[in-house]
Structure formats: structure tokens, C-alpha cells
Design goal:
The chain is mainly β. The chain has one helix at residues 101-106, and strands at 3-7, 10-13, 18-25, 33-39, 46-51, 57-59, 67-72, 77-82, 91-98, 111-112, 116-121. The strands form two sheets. Strands 2, 4, 5, 6, 9, 10 and 11 form a seven-stranded mixed sheet that branches. Strands 1-3-8-7 form a four-stranded antiparallel sheet, with no helix packed on it.
């Protein structure tokens, strides 16, 4: 059974930093494309960052140079380090995984986590 369990969300002031984690079980992050999506109320879900099997990363323009996605194959965990947080970063953040990067880009990854709330106060 595949599980993606997010943690680390919370309330942070604008300009602050936060790191959220996604612990995977049942699949290996080393051989899957992993991504972080977010969804704010009344907004479309957005793929904010993804990392390929080989470690190549890609970011949405809205978070480029502020967010960093990484993974620890030994811990089977993916991270999203968020800096210079803004009120508009407030959203529910979901971890996702798929064997194919294309599925992440298309918004149809096979596996999803339950999500973690990130709230940025201005």
C-alpha cells in the first residue's frame, strides 16, 4: 500500500520560512517523479515544484527562487523548503508521485498525499 504523508505545515509570518516534508512508503522516491501541488480556496490547483528520478527540478514561476524541492532517498522523503513566504502562498499543499514526470505536469499523478495546510499571515 502506497502512502504519502505530509508534515510540517503551519502558520508563519510573511517573509518567513517553512519546510514541509513528504514521507513515502510503498514506493521509492528514488525511482519516481515527485511533486508538490497547492490549492487555495477558490483557486485552481497548481504544481509548484517537481523533482525527477534523477534529481532535476522544476518550479512554477510564482515560487521560483523562493522554494526549493529536494529529496532524501535514504529517508524516502521529499521536502519543500519555502522562503520569503507571502500571503498568496497560503494554501493546502499536497505531495504527489508518479513513475512519469508527464503525469505530474498533467495534474494526474497516480499517488497523492492528504496534504498539509500552510498559512502565511501578512
Amino acid at each position: 500500500q502506497v502512502q504519502l504523508v505530509e508534515s510540517g505545515g503551519g502558520l508563519v509570518q510573511a517573509g518567513g520560512s517553512l519546510r514541509i516534508s513528504c514521507a513515502a512508503s510503498g514506493i521509492a522516491v528514488s525511482v519516481n517523479a515527485m511533486g508538490w501541488y497547492r490549492q487555495a480556496p477558490e483557486k485552481q490547483r497548481e504544481l509548484v515544484a517537481r523533482i525527477s528520478r534523477g534529481g532535476n527540478t522544476n518550479y512554477a514561476e510564482s515560487v521560483k527562487d523562493r522554494f526549493t524541492i529536494s529529496k532524501d532517498n535514504g529517508k524516502n522523503t521529499v521536502y519543500l523548503q519555502m522562503t520569503s513566504l507571502r500571503a498568496e502562498d497560503t494554501a493546502f499543499y499536497y505531495c504527489a508521485a508518479d513513475a512519469m514526470t508527464g503525469a505530474l505536469v498533467a495534474g494526474t499523478p497516480r499517488y497523492w498525499g492528504q496534504g498539509t495546510q500552510v498559512t502565511v499571515s501578512s
